[in-house]
């Protein structure tokens, strides 16, 4: 039977300013040493606070999904797609992000958490929680018409190659002593917000309900690969938290029934 945890945390923590600065300017060995120090610090804090699980705060990542783009060949971070959205908060400026795009067939060159898990196994005082981005994240933001469609016919073709990579990683994680595996899936909130549903139709040229159905099939395929009696599986949905801004609005009623039914 899966263990039961009375409380949980998402997994990412605010990165210290020194770590952010080092990621821009330090040598790789200096950055890794600082990452080690800061991860040990947050592991101790989680233990002191009485948490039942511990993460490394995602301190080795530039963002919640860079573990994938760093470990997978085929992304061009220079040939990038810029995206901007208004948060709806009075007086707040638009939030921007830049995401690399797929310019050749993707191929895993190392496990996604190859720099994270060994250190956690050696140092965590608590059972380990690992977060992995949902495969549905990448076709939406890394597919560029005129570039990616030279390799992949459409976003769906790219999605299922991403699924195969994440499936393999989750299967490994579940057999390597990871107590809790979480898929981070912020794209689900797009299907409940009218402005993003319109964007899916016009920019992605896809029916939002069909896209939601495929996203659920993709995530379920990954979770099945990780399913073991002693591993807890979870999925995190959100409306964005970049500098406390959100990118989607609306209640989860629009997707709750489909998601809960398909998760059985």
Could you please describe the fold and organization of this structure?
By secondary structure, the chain is an alpha/beta fold. It has one domain (51-262): TIM Barrel, CATH 3.20.20.210. It has helices at 17-25, 28-48, 66-71, 117-123, 137-142, 155-174, 194-202, 208-226, 253-262; strands spanning 72-85, 95-108, 129-133, 180-184, 232-236.
- Overall 3D shape: globular
Number of strands: 5
| Percentage of residues assigned to helices | 40-55%
Low-confidence stretches: 87-98
Number of H- or I-type helical stretches = 9
| CATH-defined fold name | TIM Barrel
Radius of gyration, whole Å: 18 Å
Judging by the overall fold, what is the CATH architecture? Answer: Alpha-Beta Barrel
Structural class: alpha/beta
What is the helix/strand order? HHHEEHEHHEHHEH
Strand order of the largest sheet: 3-4-5
Q: Which percent range describes the beta-strand content?
A: 15-25%
Please give the domain count.
1
Largest sheet report: 3 strands, parallel
Kindly report the average pLDDT value.
88
- The CATH class is identified as Alpha Beta
Distance between the termini: 16 Å
Provide key terms for this protein:
41% helix, 16% strand, 3-stranded parallel β-sheet, 264 residues, two-stranded antiparallel sheet, single chain, alpha/beta, TIM Barrel, 9 helices
Mind sketching the topology for me?
Layout: H1 17-25, H2 28-48, H3 66-71, E1 72-85, E2 95-108, H4 117-123, E3 129-133, H5 137-142, H6 155-174, E4 180-184, H7 194-202, H8 208-226, E5 232-236, H9 253-262
Parallel strand pairs: 3-4, 4-5
Antiparallel strand pairs: 1-2
